[in-house]
Amino acid sequence: MRLAGRLALLLAFAGQPAAAQPVVHSAAPDSVEVTIYRDPGRSADELIDLEEPLGGYALITETRTVELPPGPVTIRFEGVASGIQPESAIVRGVDPAEKNQDRLLLSRRGLLDAFTGQRVIVRRTDPATGRKTEEPARLRSGTNGVVIETAAGFESLHCTYLNQAPIFPRVPAGLSAKPVLSVTTGEQPGGRRQVSLSYLTANFDWQANYVGELSSDSRRLDLFAWVTLASRDQIGLVRAQANAVAGRVERARRASRGDEESEEEDEYDPDDGWEDKYSNCWPSGRTGPAYYQQPFAPDRIPEIEAPIAIRADDYDDSGFNCDSCVLTGSRLASQEALGDLKLYRIPFPVTVASHSQKQVAFLSRPRVKGELVYRSEIEDGDEVGDPQLLFRFRNLREDGLGQSLPTGQVTLFQTVGGRRLLLGETTIEDKAVGEEVELRLPESEAVEAEIVDLEEGEDWSVHRLQVANANDFPIRFEAEFEDDSYHRYERFGSRVREEDRKKIWSVRVLAHGRARLKYRKVDIQDE
Amino acid sequence: MQRLGFIALFAAAPALGQSAQGDLGVTIYQSDLALVQDVRQIDLPAGSSRQEFPDVSASIRPETVTLNGEGFGIAEQNFDFDLLSPTALMQKAVGQTVTLLRTNPATGAETRERATVLAVNGGVVLRIGDRIEVLRDDGLPVRVIFDDIPANLRARPTLSVTLETARAGRRPLTLSYLTTGLKWKADYVALFDERAGKVDVQGWITLTNATGTTFNNAATLLVAGDAAPVQGRRDDEDEPQGNSAGTESADRERIGDFYIYPIAGRTTIANAQTKQVSFLDASGAAAANSYEFRNPWLGAASYARSASTILKFSSARAGGLGDALPAGIVRVYMRDARGQAQFVGESPIPHTAMGSSLGLKTGAAFDVKVRPFVDKREKITPDEWQSTARYRIVEDGRVRTAEVQAQKEYWRSTLRYVLTNARPEPVVVDLIQGGLNPSWRDTRLISESLPGRQLGADERLWQVNVPANGEAVVTAVIDTRD
Lengths: 527, 482
What we know:
The complex is a heterodimer. Chain A is mostly beta strands.
């Protein structure tokens, strides 16, 4: 029995609650490392929305120093992230026999539960004079609606609609402001220890944001990219080593967003089942029309939200608006393989504030070789769709890139006649080194394609596809012919390549030039 | 009644941690069910007496309560779950007199009068002297003071039993009941060293208490292996390659077919607590990373898709974890370049017998991708006939038969798979083509560029070597019928 071996040490204290062991408080970590994982359910074109709970998550590793007395001891880790998944916690540096997370929170429900049967003070405020009176009372029932025992007898606290409130003499033991993770060790010699604590926690997210500058001849792209980190956790991470992981990471279902069953289990609401202090009051039906009775005290404390903290003058942070700074290699996040994933490491400590978003550059590659492609699909045999504009490049070192590209949004600019113009916004999915990347841009007006009917037979017709390029530079045009159950294409006037059951005509069109392709369409008879 | 004094109303310290519970034994099943045995020392008077049992689980299933002990018979069992609330207090006060204390909002002057509660139906109807009034009909604040709290209204759920006792004296009473709100599952931490081909696995039992009650100092037993649905894998998801059930027996205590995991010593399971206790610590088990790509039907993809990464290891005694694994979630970690353990994915596992092979999908490979192409799809009519109908014709008392035959039609698909590997070392990808048998008949493989293996009528597997920073191409021609 391995289990017995590990836990036998606890036997020494059998017969006493675990709380009888010495408790060591660890108030805050010495250093923090955070690795952020992308929301698997957020598609590439969806922005991170800091107004909503974030669907991504993070692995936080904290290093803490604790001073331990010898023997079994309970260490309480305070100040852990509020979205912690307690079952994922790993503790190194001490041999934990038991890990606990207590979610009895210091809340009105926690206070009432703890003081049920205890003495409290009831304070009343005279609405006419503002004079306050205090009366000792005993709390007889809390959670189901407050019933107090006063010198006069037994009464409800809230159903009177008087200005009165219970005053508690102290914070009861065992209630904490935030869920607290603690570990109980076995027998150990004591002394100063360095303990590392890692856990998965919700409400983080990240993505890549690319900025591309297309050269004026549209054959080169200056590609620059940010890692955008976002946190909605209540605890800010100060001067943390921050990383981001790219690639698809499998999560078991309970952690995914939109699964109501798991949310119920994960989210512990300290006021669960007790939303309103008036909810268990006796019936209040009246003979007259119901009217809204304004309670004397505000029945809801406004939610305080931390402002989004972006400090431009933070020396340890990268600048937020960094259009003009020169980024040297030491300011760029480095990339390494983590198994089959990619890890981006930010090379300087960053402060990931609560409810904030932060950007650090990870890629800066000038003059990536590629080409502008206009692509049209032939529809119904003799119609051509508006050309779709693409910038196509291969993710190769010899073409000026050769670096993994994680999912994100791309903004493309081009300087035309001395003015920087926004070409469009698009997205990129995870692209490995060696893959072809197509950045889709909006439909173009500068290149026009049309089809002219030439000849027609019983079940065939001959057409001509013509393309006109109004740009000041040459472009590549591609037309895709896909055979379907109604049409077949044949007898092309120029060479076409076959790919994935499509026939593709690819042609270079000079500046202000034209190109033509003759082809035959055959209608397929229903057999 | 000595111990009951503990929860006396005048206790000085907060009620947390104080309890009337006796010697507790808790057996927790995985289907949100636990058996609680609570042995309390109680002094029983001779004759009929009413005994109260506070601090039972707030999520108790009262129909399952039994009370055992010597020298008494149970006259009546009551489960008073009338919780004390203002509403309950008012309802129990029907027919009784209460004191109304009114405060003049302008002057603050108090007036006091006695009232009889006539009815509590959507509003409280009172008789004050010879007047009939509805409480707070004027919307003004009023204190309603009750003379007493009825004995069966309590702040916390309490059991009460009327006993017929033959002989007075102190004795142990064993209270046992089932409760919901206690759950356990397993959580595993797997640290995978890809280069060494090893995995270290720690198993933790995760216990959650949502009963509303703290169980103090309980002897705790966990039972694994029931019909509890394992959360995690979606039903429509295909299980990765490499999973097979084991046939070894673990060195664990069993009850029937169930493994049991006792927690050594006694432990306090606090309300709203998640508690984890280690039960497995295995290091150096052989493990390997593998890749799998499944093309679910005879179709193409418009771009290269990532292959799944599968972590394979065994729970066998030899070269594996050497234990039976209760259902739970395995979280996989790998060390980064600086030696820091980073999370790389998690996967649920069902109850797993010792000796099983496990293949856990941890994610998708950034650098290993597959793009299936359909190069050709054409209709084939080989010289094969099948009978589609047969008639039995009776003519002038003679029977003859006629048969209608049709030529078979096939769809011939020429599939091409391009496998790319941007990693600096060669990889092997398990390439699986699914959807081979759309009509459950007559599917045939015409040719394949690499010898494959049939996984069943519907799927074929090719193990493809993809060179470092390179690509591999597999082609297959398959005939299917509609």
